[in-house]
Design brief:
Number of helices: 8
Radius of gyration: 19 Å
CATH topology: Pnp Oxidase, Chain A
CATH superfamily: Electron Transport, Fmn-binding Protein, Chain A
Order of helices and strands: HHHEEEEHEEHEHHH
Low-confidence stretches: none
Largest sheet: 7 strands, antiparallel
Mean pLDDT: 96
Oligomer: single chain
Structural class: alpha+beta
């Protein structure tokens, strides 16, 4: 397809958009902080993104009771591979290319959490047993060495109306709390969160 308006360079891309939002720069982390840990613990669903040896990419759903993805440390998380169809698309990809990304969602919550890193598939009996559910241990566990953590704002989910009238669960970390953690407590989380509904409504489009 020959598109005369195709954007083919970073310079051309950046010229179409404005300045990077300063707060979005603050939200990038290299570890799992307290709000990130809490978000993962409350999430029953994530999307695992992988890339295979032939360059093909896959985005596969992963879900279970909230907290099914375990935080092993500030720089490592564990994702059990529950029973499926045995195509193993994502796992085959990881054997070829360990770079992975997870997008965590919580019903009723507009924000999402993105975690990227390098995955290792393990059949460690002790870890598989630790992550057993309903008496069944996963065949393998994906251990992810965390390289980047990013808290995504609520605009996409607000525009989509994905959760409808589902209420936000109590205790889920807010955008302000993530920013407060990122700035070692210097950020005014309470004011930011109080102003968020009006700010997001004014900037959805």
């Amino acid at each position: 397809m020959n598109d005369p308006h195709a954007v083919t360079s970073l310079a051309a891309l950046e010229a179409l958009y404005g300045e990077v939002n300063a707060n979005s720069q603050l939200k990038v982390r290299r570890d799992i902080d307290v709000p990130s840990r809490d978000f993962i613990a409350r999430s029953p669903f994530c999307i695992l993104s992988t890339r295979g040896a032939d360059g093909a990419v896959h985005g596969t759903p992963r879900g279970d009771a909230p907290g099914f993805v375990h935080v092993l440390s500030g720089t490592e998380i564990a994702l059990p591979d529950r029973r499926g169809n045995n195509r193993l698309d994502a796992l085959r990809d990881i054997v070829a290319d360990p770079q992975v990304a997870l997008l965590f969602l919580i019903p009723g919550v507009g924000e999402t959490l993105r975690v990227a890193g390098r995955g290792t598939i393990t059949a460690d009996p002790a870890l598989c047993s630790q992550l057993a559910e309903q008496g069944r241990a996963p065949t393998t566990v994906l251990r992810i060495a965390v390289e980047e953590v990013y808290f995504q704002c609520a605009r996409a989910l607000l525009r989509s109306g994905l959760w409808g009238s589902t209420p936000r669960p109590a205790g889920v970390p807010t955008a302000g709390q993530f920013l407060k953690s990122a700035t070692a407590g210097a950020f005014d989380a309470e004011t930011y969160d109080a102003e968020a509904p009006a700010r997001l409504a004014a900037n959805l489009y």
